[in-house]
Amino acid sequence: MNAVDIGAAYLPQNQDPTLGSSSIPGASAYTTNLLRSYRGLSTIAQQTTEFEDTYHSIQTNFNRRFRNGVQFGLNYTLSLSLTGNTGLQKRLQHALDGTISLRDDQDEYEALNKNLNLQRHLIKGNAVWDLPNVRSSGAVMRAIGALVNDWQLSGILTAGSASHYDLSYSYQSNGANVNLTGSPDYGARIVYVGDPGKGCSSDQYRQFNTAAVTGPTYHSVGLESGRNQLIGCPDHTIDLAIARNIRLGGTRQLQVRLDAFNAFNVVVINGRQAQIQYVSPTNLTIRNSQMRPDGSLDPARLTPRTAGFGAATSAQAMRRIQFMVRLSF
User: For residue 41, what are the CA distances in angstroms to 31, 35, 46?
Assistant: First the structure.
């Protein structure tokens, strides 16, 4: 309730005369707590129940009970929409008579940011196959049966759409909130000047179109773009296990089990460098470009740890093998 109004740091009456004049908007403004409506105080919070979400989906479940050595199941959720104002700010303005009201562009702000983190497809499947046994009265076949009987193969499928994410910006100098919007409490948004793509690519160095964005400039009101513009890479992972239970008589049993997590060694990128770093709002030289000016890869940015703007920074765990022997008695 005591947020600094958008544009307050630009006003002549809010300039600190001890700092001198500056060509950078907001650079000579008083400290934050002297820009607030209740001067000298910090933030004042009010807890309300004004946030809302609306979610629509179709949820299905298919199961086949264990019969003839086979069992499987599948859970599938098709998410249709997820909208709301959860996580958004109340963009307030303070009048001279002490009244507090919402800015006229609050509805525009909420409409621009109504899309929440919708995961379109969510799939979880499982299957168990009790491998056929060899049954024979012959000595040779009984010996073979002792090796191949009582094995069970099982698997789990995890698949679905990834989470949404946004591109962001930072400035090395002269690009704090107080400079861009005239308020330390309200930020500007990155500007889309083209199509950034879906947000996922098989090229680890080009997850999206980096040329599709630019940084916001001074006198922003934070309406340059909405949220959840891009979506990450979909998951399609299969875990497999093969196990055999060997009966030792009575209640004793020995189990031998081999697990393969992400059995097919699928690469699913789940992180990327989504922040573009500029020198300043008046000098949009990119400080963390993945590419050189000639379009070739920067040799200093070939690993996820040193990734430049648009490159992958992490992926889900690759194939892992686990062997286990368990004795029950």
Answer: 11, 10, 15
CA distances from 245 to 141, 213, 320, 326 (A): 19, 58, 23, 9
Predicted local confidence at residue 124, as pLDDT: 97
Cα distances (angstroms) measured from residue 247 to each of 54, 133, 153, 253, 259: 54, 15, 18, 5, 21
* The predicted structure's pLDDT at residue 248: 83
Residue 86's CB is within 10 A of a number of other CB atoms, namely 12
Give the separation between CA 93 and CA 2, rounded to whole angstroms. Answer: 9
Tens of pLDDT, residue by residue over 126-168, are 999 998 877 766 776 666 666 778 899 999 999 999 999 999 9
In sequence order, what are the beta bridge partners of 242? 153, 258
CA gyration radius, the chain:
29
Phi, psi for 210 (deg, rounded to 5): -70, -20
What integer pLDDT is reported at residue 62 of this predicted model?
96
Domain ranges of the chain: 55-82+117-328
CA quadruple 302, 306, 312, 314: dihedral, nearest 10: 120
As beta bridge partners, residue 214 has 191
The pLDDT tens digits for 234-264 are: 999 999 999 998 888 888 888 899 999 999 9
Q: For the purposes of burial, counting CB atoms within 10 Å of the CB of 24, is it exposed (0-12), middle (13-18) or buried (19 or more)?
A: middle
Count the neighbouring beta carbons within 10 Å of the beta carbon of residue 235: 19
Q: Are strands 269-272 and 252-261 parallel, antiparallel or unpaired?
A: unpaired
Tokens of 143: 């010996």
Q: 209-229 pLDDT, tens per residue?
A: 999 999 999 999 999 999 999
